[in-house]
């Protein structure tokens, strides 16, 4: 067993031993939608485990890292749920005269373009910078977040956040032309 696999196993044991405490801490500090809490919690366990084992992330404080990862993961889950609910309402609002297949095709086109953009950015800048960019943009769209706040939240230097986001924005502008 490799060192990262041992750390991954240690993390899973920590979660198993402290699951109630972790859930209580999350529910106390973040307003969660109960309908997606358990799915999000389980998904976060998998993501953190993969980060430790596959990306060789050296996590010292499991509770703090799990809390931050859960918060970001929940925001992504909540955004998807909201988009789905809004999308369902928009589709339900169409009359019988309108072609629902055209609307569905448009939706898939938007998602495909977003996934293509993520892949292009990931290939150009790497996984970490792609995650920084899309996490920041998601948080910014949800309630406004400065680079400084984001750098504190992720414990990444302000300069790295600023340079990463600026570089990717510049890259996107060039690609649009």
Provide a quick synopsis of the model.
With about 180 residues, this protein is an all-alpha fold. It contains seven helices and no strands.
- How much strand content do the residues show? under 5%
- CA radius of gyration: 19 Å
Percent range for helical residues?
A: over 70%
User: Tell me, what's the shape?
Assistant: globular
The averaged pLDDT comes out at: 77
Give the distance, in angstroms, between the N- and C-terminal Cα atoms. 49 Å
Query: Spans of 5+ residues with little confidence (pLDDT < 50)?
Result: 88-92
Q: What is the chain-wise order of helices and strands?
A: HHHHHHH
Helical region count?
7
What profile does the largest beta sheet have? Answer: none
* Helix/strand/pairing category: mainly alpha
* Number of E-state strands: 0
Topology:
Blueprint: H1 3-29, H2 34-53, H3 62-93, H4 100-125, H5 127-143, H6 147-154, H7 158-176
Describe, in plain words, how this protein is organized in 3D.
This protein is mainly alpha-helical and 177 residues long. The protein has helices at residues 3-29, 34-53, 62-93, 100-125, 127-143, 147-154, 158-176. Helix content is 84%, strand content 0%.
């Amino acid at each position: 067993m490799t060192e990262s696999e041992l750390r991954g196993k240690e993390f899973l044991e920590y979660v198993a031993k402290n699951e109630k405490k972790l859930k209580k801490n999350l529910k106390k500090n973040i307003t969660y939608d109960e309908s997606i809490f358990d799915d999000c919690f389980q998904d976060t366990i998998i993501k953190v485990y993969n980060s430790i084992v596959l990306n060789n992330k050296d996590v010292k404080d499991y509770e703090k890292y799990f809390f931050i990862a859960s918060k970001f993961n929940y925001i992504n889950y909540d955004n998807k749920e909201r988009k789905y609910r809004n999308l369902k309402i928009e589709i339900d609002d169409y009359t019988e005269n309108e072609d629902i297949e055209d609307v569905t095709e448009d939706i898939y086109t938007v998602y495909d373009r977003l996934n293509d953009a993520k892949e292009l950015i990931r290939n150009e800048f790497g996984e970490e910078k792609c995650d920084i960019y899309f996490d920041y943009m998601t948080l910014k769209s949800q309630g406004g977040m400065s680079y400084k706040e984001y750098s504190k939240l992720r414990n990444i230097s302000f300069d790295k956040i600023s340079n990463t986001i600026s570089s990717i924005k510049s890259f996107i502008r060039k690609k649009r032309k």
